[in-house]
Design brief:
By secondary structure, the protein is an alpha/beta fold. The strands form two sheets. The chain has a six-stranded mixed sheet with strand order 1-5-6-7-9-8. A five-stranded mixed sheet has the order 4-3-2-10-11, with no helix packed on it. The protein is globular and about 60 Å long. α1 links the parallel β2 and β3. α3 packs across α8. Helix content is 33%, strand content 17%.
């Protein structure tokens, strides 16, 4: 691909536990040399079996790679697929031995947090997504709505059935990782705007003009959010959302030294 990674800085630390803030999620920076290999995937969307299989493929690929390795997920762990609760439980646990794992926040994840904190938004949220997510926690939301359950009852059901720790996990997620000249984010960035000035809403939701124009900064952006049947290569960007809930394909992008590939 022609992107250079000068691995000069030794591995120094574990990935921190982040809390961010209610106004702005955390953004991380690592040196180019902090990991011998990076494995990135995006938009798991409740597809637990495919997530587990991707981890198996990653572990098999990394067997002969010496040094620290990173599994990086670019957001959207819930909705669409059947097992959002299992996906969050899996990601809340420790990564495979020899790996660090970092999950970034996607727009669907942020919307689930908003619903949990303000269940009065249930109809708005269901218009966006979410029925499959609630079903994965044993919540028959269609039955509740048909029985004319009030917002207070729906709120109690949601809070009783969705573990608080799953919501706290989603609330803790950072929104961007920069590693040298490579930027990882869920949706993309606002073209030509300094990374420090990017809005969380753009990082989680943007499509155009980013898809056509690219970042217009001296970086390569790895992102998800916009589904396609195969990875997409645009101006200074690579999209890796391959619509796993529809296609069954959860793409894993690899960065090893100076080489960028697809596992």
């Amino acid at each position: 691909m022609g992107y250079m990674f000068n691995y000069l800085v030794p591995w120094r630390q574990q990935i921190p536990i982040l809390t961010g803030s209610h106004q702005k999620r955390a953004r991380l920076t690592f040196a180019e040399g902090d990991f011998a290999a990076v494995y990135a995937m995006s938009d798991v969307h409740g597809c637990y079996s495919e997530l587990v299989d991707a981890h198996r493929r990653i572990e098999a690929d990394a067997e002969r790679i010496q040094g620290p390795k990173l599994i990086l997920l670019l957001g959207d762990y819930v909705d669409r697929g059947p097992d959002s609760s299992a996906v969050l439980e899996f990601l809340s646990k420790s990564p495979p031995p020899g790996f660090q794992r970092l999950a970034l926040c996607g727009n669907h994840d942020a919307e689930l947090v908003k619903l949990y904190r303000k269940p009065t938004r249930i109809l708005e949220w269901l218009g966006f997504a979410g029925t499959e997510t609630l079903n994965s926690y044993g919540i028959d939301i269609e039955h509740l709505l048909q029985s004319a359950a009030g917002s207070d009852m729906i709120s109690r059901v949601i809070h009783n059935m969705i573990p608080e720790r799953h919501i706290q996990f989603l609330e803790s997620l950072p929104i961007m990782l920069r590693m040298g000249r490579v930027v990882f984010v869920h949706a993309g960035i606002r073209p030509g705007i300094d990374l420090k000035k990017q809005k969380d809403s753009d990082l989680m939701w943007i499509r155009q003009p980013f898809l056509d124009e690219g970042p217009q900064l001296p970086v390569l952006v790895i992102h998800g959010h916009t589904p396609a049947r195969i990875p997409t290569f645009g101006p200074q960007r690579i999209g890796i959302d391959t619509a796993v809930s529809a296609t069954g394909r959860l793409t894993v992008l690899t960065i090893k030294g100076t080489r960028v590939g697809i596992l």
